[in-house]
Amino acid sequence: MLVAGIDGGQSSTTAVVADEHGTILGYGYAGAADELGERPGSTRLRDALEGALADAVRACGLAPQTRFAAIVAGVSGYEGRIVGEAPRMPADRFALMHDAPIAHAGALGGEDGVTVIAGTGSVAYATARGRARRTGGYGYLFGDEGSAFWIARRAVSGAARHDDCRGIATLLSFFDRHTVREIVDAFYAGAIPRADLAAFAPYALAAARDGDRCDCIAQPARDAAGELARLAFDAALERTGPVQAAFAGGLARDPWFAAQLEGACAAYFEARGAAVRVVAARAEPAAGAAILAGRL
């Protein structure tokens, strides 16, 4: 018996193929899968899910027509409705859901607690005694606090307000533009996609890690940990004992930022009369999706 799990994000999509014992046999990758801002007829979701799965099937050495007992796909921003073309999944059972539950299943292995996704966007998901709650995840315009996009957007915004910001040179070099206004205009015109803007976040993290006092570049990275700690606290369903918390997503894989997250969470919970125990994520979201597929 084979199952598959797919993590469809705002920057990229990862698929895993696993056997009945939960052993991962291979990985596959494709482009962004979210449908934020997409219109009817869009193939973004379909292409990403089908492409990542096909890539994983090839990586395993399986036949292209291989059929699965179950497939679970978690997609950033998914709220129960497909805007564009629906993916065709070769499975007896297929479940499409928000990416928060699959990240939670992977990070905490089914145990209660809080998982915060800190990638291109951000969202928190918590479970406790059969209940679940999700906070954040309102997208790049109205939410995604502490995310890679949030950091990059604040960096560009800060540079636009302060002509003498030392970080402007870094921004201009990264985006290959002559002025901050050119960066802004290119984003609005679609020449700089959301994922490409968010890709500046690691440079901001590096500036903050190295002690750069530049408010434009480093300060957003320093502030992001506190925003994500707030998401974790707001999602927690029970706070009478130490809340188990884990972080997933690209930002959380940065060692310096992971340490900032742990400290910010401890301080935020303590200031509100609660306690938190930050643990390392046990598995990635795509593997969490495979776990949920196994349960199907």
What is the class of one domain in the CATH system?
A: Alpha Beta
Q: What sort of overall outline do the alpha carbons produce when their principal axes are compared?
A: globular
Radius of gyration (Å): 19 Å
Mind summarizing the main beta sheet?
Answer: 5 strands, mixed
Broad structural category? alpha/beta
Which regions are unreliable across 5 or more consecutive residues at pLDDT < 50? Answer: none
Enter the CATH topology name of one domain.
Nucleotidyltransferase, domain 5
Number of helices: 11
Tell me the CATH superfamily of one domain: ATPase, nucleotide binding domain
The succession of helices and strands, N to C, reads EEEHEEHEEEHHHHHHHEHEH
Topology summary:
Layout: E1 2-8, E2 13-19, E3 24-30, H1 44-60, E4 68-75, E5 91-98, H2 99-108, E6 113-118, E7 122-128, E8 131-136, H3 139-142, H4 148-161, H5 168-175, H6 180-189, H7 194-198, H8 201-209, H9 218-235, E9 243-248, H10 255-270, E10 276-278, H11 285-295
Parallel strand pairs: 1-4, 4-5, 6-9, 9-10
Antiparallel strand pairs: 1-2, 2-3, 6-7, 7-8
Helix pairs in contact: 2-11, 4-9, 8-9, 9-10
